[in-house]
Amino acid sequence: MHEVVIISGKGGAGKTSITGAFAHLSENTIICDLDVDAPDLHLLLAPTPLTQEEFRSGNEAVIDPSKCDDCGTCAAMCRFNAIELTKEGFKVSPLHCEGCKVCVEFCPSDAIDFPEKHCGQWSVSSTRFGTMVHAQLFPGEENSGRLVTLLKQKARKIAEEEGHDIMLCDGAPGIGCPVISSMAGTDLAVVVTEPTPSGRHDLERVVKLCDHFKTKVAVIINKYDLNAAQTAGIEEFCKANGYPVICHFPHDQAMTESMVQAQVITEYSTNTASDLLETAWKNMLNLLQDNSK
Amino acid sequence: MIYAIASGKGGTGKTTLSASLVSIWDRPVTAVDLDVEEPNLHLFLHPEETQTRRAYIEVPEPDESKCTLCRKCADICQFKAITIMGETLLVFPEMCHGCGGCLEVCPENALLPGKRELGEIISGTAYGNDFIMGRLRIGEAMSPPLMRHIKEGLTPKPSEDIIIDAPPGVSCPAISAVMDADCIVLVTEPTPFGFHDFKLAWEAFAPLGKPMGAVINRAGIGDTKVQDFCRNAAIPIWAEIPYAREIAEAYSEGAVIAQAVESLRETFETLRRNMQAATQEVPNA
Lengths: 293, 285
Prior knowledge:
Chain A is an alpha/beta fold. Chain A has 11 helices and 13 strands. Chain A has helices at residues 15-25, 41-45, 73-77, 102-106, 144-162, 177-183, 197-212, 228-241, 253-260, 265-268, 272-292; strands spanning 2-7, 29-33, 48-59, 62-63, 83-86, 89-92, 112-113, 116-127, 130-137, 166-170, 188-193, 216-222, 245-249. Chain B is α/β, with parallel strands linked by helices. Chain B has 11 helices and 11 strands. Chain B is 32% helix and 29% strand. Chains A and B meet through helix 4, helix 6, helix 7 and helix 9 of A and helix 4, helix 6, helix 7 and helix 9 of B.
């Protein structure tokens, strides 16, 4: 099985719209939304949950005021400034607490509990394009990387059971924790960019991350007709570094219109833009074939 | 006052807005790019006289000659950064959150404070104001520690403001960017993705109890669900930036749109006034 992740560095470059179209064009794919922080793929794919489970990860410190004797050891030792002295005594700010257990360990009165955190939920669902694994991290939570890893493990297992040959993942923006986790075991990162200073800058950083983890890269230039000079610059950069550009996609209103209709673009319109994505999908399959030789 | 420009969905226009606001702000203001994974504000503000320093996080460095393999450090570590394999203490510095627990708990002083590079902090000036940004080292997974370094250096004087360009999303990096702000501006676009992530952001940030307003970017594309939601939830819409190819092209050339697109000047002035009025309404904020 091949694992593909669609990323971009910059948010809003078109990752999810393109992942949705690829899910439609693919024939035997397990779909995975690894943007667990602000997932959107479900808005296009309208998944029907088959199973839904809680995601529990990490712990958080909670001070029991009946046992606390206000010594302040916890606040002094906390490196995250998560413990404050309030009118009601010392309190842990859940937003600041990193779950490191230092305060729990060193509290002389054993006054700090350390319950496990319920930080999100994840589902296996059916969609019109096949099985989908997805999740939602609760607001402000950490451990997105662990949730991404869990989703990938689950998707691999299902792919094996159902006999899929491709795992298609919608990734998160940025280059941090969830993106790094999404790259583990990935055969190809499809990087979506746009011909703007931010698009170019973020492309350069995210492909460096791919190189760092020895993940192969293919590039899609979205809205390529917005700025010809920027597009040429991106092409040059890709050529110089050996990253194949598998699609130039135009600035197309149909992208938004299809989203409003809860459809992927290749379902919504059969114009040339859709053909371009079909070619991109085939180019990508060829790259996967070449890679595995 | 500290103003955070945030959004659930990426690419809705946080940086565009931050750059424009800095360019028209009527008081001294420090521009802060806290989207350390993919910082972009400098691409529009072109800071000058920049200085770069590296930022680090403390991680344990084992002294094998002193270690008795008692496991206390491995037991306290919640992040799987220390383990004992056979007769060897193994430290995985990339996993460490820098809590210092292992150093405190070690009875033999066999762990010394070492360091891991988080990235760079770059400061300079732009539009006659201070500018500061973080740039996460490629391969570094954790952005909040670098963000903390940047925030610790910020001491707003009463006569000065701070505008923070926040990272996208609603998980820990986004929350840590907005939690010290006096006012949050939520930027979105009127599309199903924009609307969905706007609601997530609203749910995430509303409990912080800070004045919050919405900016609808690319108004006219998609639908009007964001506007309807704002009306029903009594979220003020502080500005609507219309969708226009002219604006998209100016942005693609690296222009600050409040400067490059004449018709937007008043839109941003109104936004600035709305933001400033929102922080005035909070007693003793």
